[in-house]
Amino acid sequence: MFAQGRPLERARLLFHFESGSARAVLDELAAYQNDDGGFGHALEPDLRTPVSSAVATWCACTVLHEIGAGAEEPLVRRAVGYLLDTYDAAGRRWWIVPPETEDSPRAPWWTYADIGRTFGDCVLNPTAGLAGALWEYRELVPAALLGELTETVLTRLEGWADGAGGLDRGDLTAAELFVQARNLPDAARLRALAAMRRAAARLVENRPEAWTEYLLQPLDVAPSPDSPLFPAVDSASIEANLDYVLSKQLPDGSWPLTWSWAEVDAQAWPLAERAAKGLVAVDRLRTLRAYGRL
Asked: Are 53 and 63 in contact (CB under 8 A)?
């Protein structure tokens, strides 16, 4: 991490393992915030545009949740302002990436073209996660909007959890910030969890031989025993996944990624890969500690 990781991930690592300050994390996160309050500049490593996007702002909001940042922070207030300004009220969603996405290096899946089909009309990914972010800072958000968003997300989760096609990995990941949001009413949390647990039980890949692929592994949905989706995952699969993670650490201390777009852009991919490995390393270490494997 200290040789290859981004300053942001180093600050997160120190926060979680060495009594580092939340202020240091906020200071590093600020480097990715634009004047409009949104986040860009490859905060999501596979999306290299400097322009603000809903997905990069969702990434920032997960860090803010992680360190318990309060509504008094100017960075938080600007981020909430960006979300309020870019909310598509007619469709009750945020569009995941902006048109400018096409002008910078990116993974092939981060494309603005045909955005509705590619991302399921963005009605859950990233909308569920950003709705959770607004619940974190409800004092900054109109109550009517929170009510509208909450019922919209719940209806979509419950309708898609068992429907044809159902929820996919991105939808489930976005919804995790929703159910973990501070201030989310308990009744809404329970409704969302019930739908998500049904979906997780279907989506998680329990076969170790498939874990080299970009699939939902048990630890992706249950990174700690306190995770809201932990009850949906078989305990034996979690133990096997922990063994697998420990066995796959590379000599340099990182873990191999399960995706690549080197064939699309051989120059940009190494930068994205290095940043992504830092993200994965912090998450792996936090998970291993949570399960008593450090």
From this structure: no
Helix/strand/coil percent split, the chain, to 5:
55, 0, 40
The answer for residues whose C-beta is within 8 angstroms of residue 159's C-beta and 6 or more apart is none
Mean local confidence (pLDDT), 188-216: 93
Q: In angstroms, rounded to a whole number, what is the distance separating the alpha carbons of residues 149 and 157?
A: 12
The pLDDT assigned to 120 comes to 87
Q: Which amino acid is at 47?
A: L
Instruction: Give the pair of three-digit tokens for residue 196.
Output: 């998500």
pLDDT value at residue 161: 76
Select from 122, 124, 125 the least CA-distant residue to 157.
124
Domain borders along the chain are: 33-203, 204-294
> Nearest to residue 86, comparing CAs of 98, 74, 71, 103?
98
Instruction: Give the span between the Cα atoms of 124 and 110, in whole angstroms.
Output: 16
Split at pLDDT 50, 70, 90, the class of 27 is very high
